[in-house]
Amino acid sequence: MTIDNNQLSGWTENLQSTSQNQTCTLQKGSWPLFGVRCIDPPVLDSMKLKGVIKRHYYPGDRIDYECYRGYFYVWPYLLSATCEPNGSWSRIEEACLRKSCPDPKVKHGKVVAPNETFEWESEAHISCDEGYFLRGKPIIVCNLIGENVSWSDTIPHCEKIYCGQPPKIKHGKHTNSYRNIFEYNELITYSCDLSNGPDEYSLVGQSKLVCIEPNKWSSDPPLCKVVKCERPFLEHGIMVSGSREKFSYQSVVVFECLQGFYLNGSNLVFCGGNDTWEPEIPTCIKVFLPPPSFPSHTIIIFLKVMLKILQAKIGHGTIEWFKIGKGVQQGYVLMPCLFNFYEDHIMQNARLDESQAGIEIAEKSINNLRYADDTTLMVESEEELKSLLVKLKEESKKAGLKFNIQKTNILASGLTTSWQIEGVKVEAVTDFIFFSSKITVDSDCSHEIKMLAP
C-alpha cells in the first residue's frame, strides 16, 4: 500500500522506495482511526494551553498546560491531557492555586479576612485588643505584582495606650499628680483647694477622668470656681423649698404660684456653673384657662439633680461622691412619689381625668386614689368600674406594668358575685384595710372608733 505520509500518522518510511510516492509500513498496533479527532481542548480556570492551539487533534496527541499569572502548580496534579481513541480528552483537573499573601499576624490584635482567604485581591481587616491602638492602616489588600504577591501597605501593629499627665486646673489638683505617664483605663480624680475667702470653690464639670485613647482623657478637666447665683424671684409666686442666704453651685429651689395663677415652666431650678439658674426661672400666669398638665421635664430635672451623685456615710466619715446608675434603693423616701409620677402618666394616657365615672366630692369627680404602687378606683356603678379597669389595664401594659390580680379586690354595695380578669378570679369582699383603716361596705366606723378609744 502506498500513500502520502503527510496525510497519515502512525507509519514508518520504507527508505528503499524509489517512487515519487513513498511507501509507508504500518507499525504493529498503530493503525490510525480514520475520522476520529479531538477538538476543543479542556478550558480550566487556573491554567492555559502552551504553544499554538490547533483546530483538531488526533488520537495519541498530547497538549500541555501552564499556570496563569498569579497561580502556582500543585503536585501531583497533571499539566497535560491526551487525545483518546474515542475522540475525548483524558481526565485533567485544576492543578494550580491562586497565590496568597503571608498571614499578617498582629500581636495584641485581631485579623479578619472577609473573604476567608488572603489570596491576591483579598482584604485583611486589622483591629487591636482593648488597651491598644493601631499604628498603620486598618485595611490592607493582597496585590499581584508581576508573578509575585505582596500586601498593599506595611502590616500595622498594635501599641499600648498611654496618656500623658492630665491638665492642671486653677484652685484645684488631681490624684497621682507626681506621675507623668498613665496607662489605659487609669482614673484620676480632681478636687478643689480650700478658699481663702468667704465662699468655697465648687468643682464644675467631671471630677473623674479616665485614659481612653493615646494622650486622650475621657472629658475636659473640671473648673474650680466660686459659683453664686442671685436670689431668685418669682412674681405672683413663692419659694416653697431651698430658701437660704447664699445660693451656691447646684443649690435647688422649688417654686409655687399663688392661688389664681398657674406655673409656666419648670417649678424646680438649680444654680448652674455659670452663676445662672437652670432652666430659666418660670413665670406665674393668671388663670383664665385650665392650667396645663404637670410638665414631665420638671420631673426629669428634679431627678437629675437629686440623683446625679450621692455620698455614703460609714462610721464617723463619708466615702467619695459616686455616680448613680439606674433605680433607687429599696425603701428610698422618694420611691412612692416617683411611682406616683409614673402612674400619673398612665392615668393621663388612659384619660381617667376625662371620664365621667367617679364620686362627686366638692363638685369634683374623684375616680382614683394612689400611693406608690397601690391604686384605688372609685365609681358609682359596676359598668363604670369595668370601663376604667379596661382602660387602665391597656395603658399599664404599654408602660411595662400589669395588675397584680391576686391582690385585687372589689368592694361594692349589693355586689355578691366575683369577676374574672384574664381568667383569674377577683374576689368581691365586704371590707378591706386601706392604710391601716378598715373600710366596710356598710360604712361601719365602729372598728376605727374602738382603735381610737382610750
List the helices and strands and how they pair.
Elements: E1 11-13, E2 24-26, E3 47-49, E4 62-67, E5 71-73, E6 80-82, E7 96-98, E8 109-112, E9 123-128, E10 132-135, E11 139-145, E12 148-151, E13 157-160, E14 162-164, E15 172-174, E16 181-183, E17 187-192, E18 202-204, E19 208-213, E20 216-217, E21 223-225, E22 237-241, E23 252-257, E24 261-264, E25 268-271, E26 277-278, E27 283-286, H1 296-307, E28 309-310, E29 313-314, E30 317-318, E31 322-323, H2 335-349, E32 359-361, E33 364-366, E34 368-371, E35 374-377, H3 382-398, E36 409-411, E37 419-421, E38 424-429, E39 431-434, E40 437-440, H4 446-452
Parallel strand pairs: 36-38
Antiparallel strand pairs: 1-2, 3-4, 4-6, 5-7, 8-9, 9-11, 10-13, 11-12, 14-16, 15-17, 17-19, 18-21, 19-20, 22-23, 23-25, 24-27, 25-26, 28-31, 29-30, 32-33, 34-35, 37-38, 39-40
> How many distinct helices?
4
In what order do the strands lie side by side in the largest sheet?
Answer: 8-9-11-12
Total strand segments: 40
Question: What's the mean pLDDT score?
Answer: 81
Estimated helix fraction: 10-25%
Q: Please describe the biggest sheet, giving its number of strands, its sense, and whether it closes into a barrel.
A: 4 strands, antiparallel
Keywords: Disulfide bond, Repeat, Signal, Sushi
GO molecular function: RNA-directed DNA polymerase activity
Disulfide bonds: 257-284
Domain Sushi: 36-98, 99-160, 161-226, 227-286
